[in-house]
Structure formats: C-alpha cells, structure tokens
Specification:
Strand 1 (about 1-10), helix 1 (about 10-15) and strand 2 (about 25-30) form a beta-alpha-beta unit. The chain is an alpha/beta fold and about 450 residues long. The longest helix is centred in the middle third of the chain and has 22 residues, at about 190-210. The chain has 4 domains: about 1-80 and about 190-210, Rossmann fold; about 80-190, Rossmann fold, CATH 3.40.50; about 215-350, Reverse transcriptase/Diguanylate cyclase domain (Alpha-Beta Plaits, 2-Layer Sandwich); about 355-440, Winged helix-like DNA-binding domain superfamily/Winged helix DNA-binding domain (Arc Repressor Mutant, subunit A), CATH 1.10.10. The chain has helices spanning about 10-15, 40-45, 60-65, 65-70, 80-95, 110-120, 145-160, 170-180, 190-210, 230-250, 265-275, 280-290, 305-320, 355-365, 365-380, 385-395, 400-410, 435-440; strands at about 1-10, 25-30, 50-55, 75, 105, 130, 165-170, 185, 215-220, 250-255, 260-265, 295-300, 325-330, 335-340, 345-350, 385, 415-420, 430-435. Strands 10-11-9-12-13-14-15 form a 7-stranded mixed β-sheet. The chain has a 4-stranded parallel β-sheet with strand order 2-1-3-4. Strands 6-5-7-8 form a 4-stranded parallel β-sheet, with helices on both faces. The protein contains 18 helices and 18 strands. This is Transcriptional regulator. It comes from Heyndrickxia shackletonii.
C-alpha cells in the first residue's frame, strides 16, 4: 500500500486526520513534533517508511530540506495565503470585538497582510507585525528560527498595552502564549484547505508511483579493463560483483553487454537504493577490481530512452573525471544530476528557448540534436574539436558527423581553427570551434 507521512504539531494532525478516510487506498503515518526545526529524527524514520511527505506548513518544510534530499523524498505542505489571514482576522474581530490595530501578528510575509488591507481599501492603518520571509528561500543556507523572539514580540506589546490579542502562524508560539495567559489564536486552518492539501499529496504520490515504474538503466564502464590477457577471468569476477549489487536493486545484469556493462531495473527500485544508500556499494567496486569506474544512470518510459539517457550520463561521467569513480544520472526530462554521493548539482539538458527552436529549423535538425551539439561544446569546454570527437559523442559515423559540421559551417556558426595530425600519419583532420554567431546561444 502507498504510504504518506504527515508531519506536524498534534493540533495539525488532529485536524487533518479527519479526512484520511477519504482515501482508503492510502496509508497515512503521523509524525508529531513539538518544534518544526527539530525534526531530523522523524525524517530519518519517515525516510524508510513512506513514499511521500506532507508537512503542516512552510517552516517544517524549510527545516526538512536536508533530510528530504538525503532520502530523496518528494513532499508538499499546507500553504499560507491571504484567505487564511483574512479568516483569522475576521474571527478575532467578530468573536473578540477587538479592532485590527490592537492585534499583534506574526506571519511568513508581511506582504500577505498588506495585500489583505489593500483589497478592503484600508490604507491608514498601522499594525504590529513580525515576519520571517526567508522561509521561502530554500536555495540559501538554512537560517535558525528563534521562537523566543516571536513570543517576546507578542508579550512586550501586550504588557505595554499596545495590543490586546495575538495572532500567530507558529504552533509552538501559540502554545507558549497560552501558557502565559495572553489572549491568542493560531491562524485559522479551513477544512477546505486541509482537504485540498491532502488531495494534492495523494495526487503527487500517485504520480510518483507512476514515475517509479519507469525503466532505469545503469551503464558501467571500467577504466582499466583488460584487453586480452585475463579478460575472461576479470569479466566473470566483475559480473559476480554486479549480480550482488543487482539483487539489492531488484535488477538484472545484461550478460550480452560488456564495456559498458548494463544493469536493468525500474526507477522505484533504484530510488529506494539511493535512499537506502545500497547503490553506494557500486563505489566499493573500485577497490575490489583495482580500477576506477565511470557510471551513467538513465530513466525513461521506454527501454530505448532509458538506455540512451544512461549513455549520455556515462559520457558526462567520463568527461568529469577519469581518475576516480563518478556517477551521473539523466532523467526522462533530460535533467542531469551528479556526481552522485558528492556535491550533487542539477542542470537541464533540455532547452525550450524560442531561439533554439528557430536555429534548429534553420539548420534543418531537431531541437534535441541541436541541444546535444551545444552540450558537446560545453563538455569540450569550448575547445576546438574534430569530426571524430563529435561522431563519438553522437555515436554516429565520422561521415555523419561531418555532415552535421557542414550545416554549421554553411551558417557561419562554426569556423575551422586548425588541423590535427592523427597517430597513424594519415591525412590531417580539421579542427573546429564555434563562431561569435553561435556564442550567444550559450548562457554563462
């Protein structure tokens, strides 16, 4: 059964669990916490138990980023918006009869309050507000959230008589304000928003399960592979190691293919292997066979796509380093990730830019092949290249590569920069590089 982990305060879990019964096909596992910035131990547990995570809000989602990346977990959270704030203010005004200027508020962005006041044409009202907008800056270094500052903010205003009521967006702050007998409420969570968030989590989880069924191919190239003496013995030894790894990934090793060796599985099994770090055992092969490895992983909805993506990822792995084992992954959307288990970076090999589309039409080649060509130039680090190098990258004949180059030469997008004398003392080979006309298509 598909499992969704729900992380939040007891108040949140009590509220949202009422709607679990709407999805009998889903198993919901609750992870209750007292402070959203201290949830690593819960995420360690959830990482081994669930397929997807649902957080109570942006704060917990923010502080869970590191562990989510470690366990490669997809997640969503209950979003904060102007409607939630409006309902909360209306509730205080209606039930407590307290004017807006006598309410202290903490919320993710002060902009939410400004938008609400603007919509109801209130322009001359000053309210006491404390926000934490950095919570949405996930790409930046994690900051700390000191709830004592928020508690003190509400407490000081209340004691000074400047406010009569506190509205908070942080559960832990609400609980402390209650202990201090300060009139307060937590932001109103509507039933509709809870149900919509739950629906979104279920939909995303099902989408993830569909992606898990994708084909995954692991392409492994041994850098010091013996060419003749001892080749058979080495191959049998390597296959034995690969079969041991394949068992843990619910995979099979191709016996026909070698150099690169291929392992076939599905995305779900491979993601589990990444999450449980069993795929890291591939790195141990380096010591067992006394050779570095270059490894490419490809995802695809068809076998052909997965194999092609694995080959492209393998090419990036080889270009990145030949001195130590490297693993790169290319998914079905041409997103490249790697090197795995190191300082992973992501960038897309797909370009939807209109200029690229126009250029591909001008060259009478597909946008996919044009993007591959531009990726080749990047991998060459903008050094001059030969037709044979391009042929090796595209896995086509040298004559086919020369035809591709001719198209770029005719449009003055490439230029001849010199020639290279081959080792066999045959005819010198022309070397090419991009012209200024093509440079504009590369984003620095």
């Amino acid at each position: 059964m598909v499992a969704i982990g729900v992380l939040g305060s007891k108040l949140f879990i009590d509220a949202i669990s009422e709607y679990y019964a709407l999805y009998p096909e889903i198993s919901f596992i609750n992870y209750s916490y007292e402070s959203p910035w201290d949830i690593d131990h819960l995420l360690d547990k959830a990482g081994k138990e669930v397929d997807f995570l649902l957080f109570s809000g942006a704060i917990a989602y923010y502080f869970g980023q590191k562990k989510m990346k470690e366990y490669r977990l997809m997640a969503t959270y209950v979003s904060f918006n102007e409607f939630v704030l409006s309902l909360s203010l209306f509730s205080i005004y209606f039930h407590e009869k307290i004017p807006l200027e006598k309410i202290s508020i903490d919320l993710p962005k002060q902009e939410f309050l400004e938008n609400v006041l603007k919509e109801i044409h209130i322009t001359d009202l000053t309210m006491s507000v404390k926000d934490y907008p950095w919570i949405f800056h996930l790409e930046e270094q994690t900051q700390s959230l000191d709830i004592s500052q928020f508690i003190q903010f509400h407490l000081d205003l209340y004691k000074q008589g400047k406010t009569q009521f506190a509205l908070t967006s942080i559960h832990a702050v609400y609980e402390e304000l209650q202990k201090l007998s300060i009139p307060s409420i937590y932001m109103v969570q509507t039933k509709q928003s809870l149900k919509e968030t739950l629906e979104r989590a279920v939909t995303l989880t099902k989408f993830k399960k569909t992606k898990d069924s994708q084909i995954a191919v692991i392409s492994i190239k041994v850098m010091n592979y013996p060419t003749s003496h001892g080749e058979q013995e080495f191959r049998l030894k390597l296959l034995q190691y690969l079969h041991e790894i394949a068992k843990q990934l619910n995979a099979r090793v191709s016996l026909e293919q070698h150099q690169p060796f291929l392992i076939y599985t599905n995305r779900g099994s491979l993601e589990t292997g990444l999450k449980e770090k069993s795929l890291q055992k591939v790195l141990e092969l380096e010591g067992k066979i006394n050779s570095s490895l270059q490894i490419g992983i490809g995802y695809g909805y068809t076998m052909n796509d997965a194999e092609n993506h694995a080959n492209e990822a393998l090419f990036f792995s080889e270009k990145h380093s030949k001195e130590k084992t490297q693993i790169f992954l290319l998914d079905e959307d041409k997103k490249l990730i790697g090197p795995l288990f190191e300082n992973e970076k992501q960038f897309s090999l797909k370009n939807e830019d209109k200029e690229i589309q126009n250029l591909s039409e001008s060259l009478k080649m597909t946008a996919k092949n044009l993007n591959r060509f531009l990726d080749f130039i990047r991998l060459q680090q903008f050094r001059s290249f030969s037709a044979q190098e391009l042929a090796d990258y595209f896995e086509v004949s040298r004559r086919s590569a020369e035809r591709i180059i001719k198209r770029f030469l005719e449009k003055e997008l490439l230029m001849v920069t010199g020639e290279e004398q081959p080792y066999d003392l045959g005819r010198p080979r022309a070397l090419y590089n991009i012209s200024d006309k093509l440079k504009k298509y590369f984003v620095s």
